[in-house]
Write a structure and sequence with these properties.
By secondary structure, this protein is mainly α. Helix content is about 80%, strand content about 0%. It has 7 helices and no strands. The chain has helices at about 5-10, 15-40, 40-50, 55-95, 100-110, 115-145, 150. Helix 2 (about 15-40) runs antiparallel to helix 4 (about 55-95) and helix 4 (about 55-95) runs antiparallel to helix 6. It is elongated, with a radius of gyration of 21 Å. About 25% of the residues are buried.
Length: about 160
């Protein structure tokens, strides 16, 4: 919320909205990726080193596949947060005089007491958030379905 007006000063409106959404979405992915890379079983890392694996092999063959569930969880979180960042940037852009987008329509409808238009824009934003979440959940399921315990289900 604090950085959106600054981005609007230095960037064009569309670039500022994208930058704000990217900044908000970047940190959950970074935090979950770091957590995933650091949560690899130390015994497996030692086993890879024992067999003479290079640092690149340890990263690409062991650590990244082990961190993939964490990365995908961060992407699911970031999908919703990026929508929130875009809404905040659009509201800030609307108050700066550049009016476009659903968030601007929500603010404008609130000022003009056009409640049906405001609810229509809110419903469209909610649907967009739900679609983003389910699309990223589908991506996560497709990437993990054959080998990770979280996507295998209850097969006995």
């Amino acid at each position: 919320m604090a950085i959106a007006p600054l981005l609007l000063i230095y960037l064009p409106q569309q670039a500022a909205v994208l930058a704000c959404a990217w900044i908000v979405a970047f940190f959950p992915v970074l935090a979950n990726t770091t957590l995933g890379l650091n949560s690899v079983d130390r015994n497996l890392v030692d086993l890879f080193r024992l067999y003479g694996a290079s640092r690149r092999q340890v990263l690409f063959v062991l650590k990244l596949p082990s961190a993939l569930p964490f990365i995908l969880a961060g992407l699911r979180i970031a999908g919703g947060l990026s929508l929130i960042g875009a809404v905040v940037a659009e509201i800030a852009a609307g108050s700066a005089g550049a009016g476009s987008g659903l968030a601007y329509r929500i603010a404008e409808s609130g000022y003009r007491l056009n409640i049906p238009r405001m609810f229509a824009a809110l419903i469209l934003l909610s649907i967009a958030g739900i679609v983003i979440f389910f699309a990223l959940s589908l991506l996560s399921h497709l990437a993990l379905r054959r080998w990770h315990e979280s996507a295998l289900g209850n097969e006995n």
